[in-house]
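Re: beginner question about structure tokens

> Can someone show what the tokenized structure looks like for a real chain? I only ever see the sequence side.

Sure, here's an example I had lying around. Input first:
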Amino acid sequence: MHDNQDLFDAVQLKSSYSDNIALRSRRHVLAMSLIELGQGIPFFQAGDDLLRSKDMDQNSYDSGDWFNKIDWTGQGVNWGIGLPIASQNGGQWNIMQPLLSSAAYAPQPANIQSTTAAFQEFMRIRYSSGLFRMSSLSDVQQNLTFLNTGQNQTPGLIVMKLDDNVGNYNGFNHVLVVFNATTSTITFTDASLKGLHFQLHPEQCRSSDWVVQQATFDGQQGSATVPPMTTAVFVR
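And the corresponding structure tokens:
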């Protein structure tokens, strides 16, 4: 795939200069989780789970292996090897150069490993319930609802509720997913969640990411508390 920046490069471009590489890597993981836990067939570019970079090349069709290669060893991501070719990117060199020349924005092996582990974890979560892979539009319409909507919604927060109302899907029959794309811990409360007994997904309870383990659900209040830049999955 050669059109546009790849996912990690887009994160690099759109993050604040003050965001360190750990936060940038976490933002990349959250973006992947949106695809992994969505309906339909998830599509990823080769190397997304390795923080693959094309040095922000926005059309690498004619860029050769220098920009298109993938480091399968997980030791590097091809970041900071030089400005991408001028014919496709020259107009953005003034934006790219400060980022590519800063060692602070280069992923380290630990960042790559945690990204790979998170990618695999979300895939296991996806296959723990058929509700993530519904087979028809009708089932999606009857089993999927979004909370945190309307004029009073909390910006940067997506709350997705899946219930096996029709279709007899295997695995967990009730799922609540909270995508917190903000840099603050958020407690989301909704009357429809009161009295429900959700628990953090077993995969996340034993996650190598200690941050997601801090996510909690309070059935009495009908509220989910999720750390910053985190996707938390609750099940019952």
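Each token stands for a local structural state, so reading them left to right follows the chain. DSSP finds eight helices and eight strands in the chain.
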